[in-house]
Write a structure and sequence with these properties.
156 residues, alpha+beta, 4-stranded antiparallel β-sheet, two-stranded antiparallel ribbon, 24% strand, globular
Length: 156
């Protein structure tokens, strides 16, 4: 079987709320290994579209195709099981957590010792450091703010 051309397709996505049509027949197609940005004014539907992908909202119509398979995402847990994650637009969603922990919220890498599962902080730190380095973002993963002016382990 041939690999699909797109890793993700959102075809004809429509979402309405009382008094407003937030998304009207939106189609997005993403090829594997590419990076995209959604741009638009406040209220244009960017967050709504991503919330439909992540299972926070259920689209009123349209299809989501992931790696060639139609999927129905009813919750963020469904999305995470499919390998979809979302970093919300708030700069620091959980103030008590550092940059690294905010990036990994809900999907921390695990370390299993016998019947017990623990957060693998070493692996999480290394993955986060590599990600930030690849994106050329100069932020300490253990910092409690997203500015490069912060000192490791301190709050801004």
């Amino acid at each position: 079987m041939a690999k699909p051309e797109y890793i993700l397709e959102m075809n004809g996505i429509t979402k309405e709320f009382p008094g407003v049509k937030a998304l009207d027949n939106v189609t997005v197609k993403i090829k594997k290994g590419t990076v995209h940005a959604l741009l638009g004014e406040n209220g244009a539907g960017k967050s709504t579209l991503m919330k439909c992908l992540f299972g926070i909202y259920k689209p009123d119509s349209g299809d989501i195709i992931l790696d060639g398979q139609h999927v129905h995402i009813h919750s963020p847990i469904d999305a995470i099981k499919l390998g979809i994650s979302m970093i919300h637009q708030e700069l620091q969603p959980v103030n008590q957590r550092n940059v690294m922990e905010n990036i990994w919220l809900g999907r921390f890498p695990r370390l299993t010792i016998g019947p017990f599962k623990f957060v693998n902080h070493k692996k999480m730190y290394e993955y986060t450091r590599q990600l930030l380095q690849k994106l050329e973002i100069d932020v300490d993963p253990e910092s409690h703010c997203w500015s490069s002016f912060c000192v490791k382990g301190t709050a801004c």
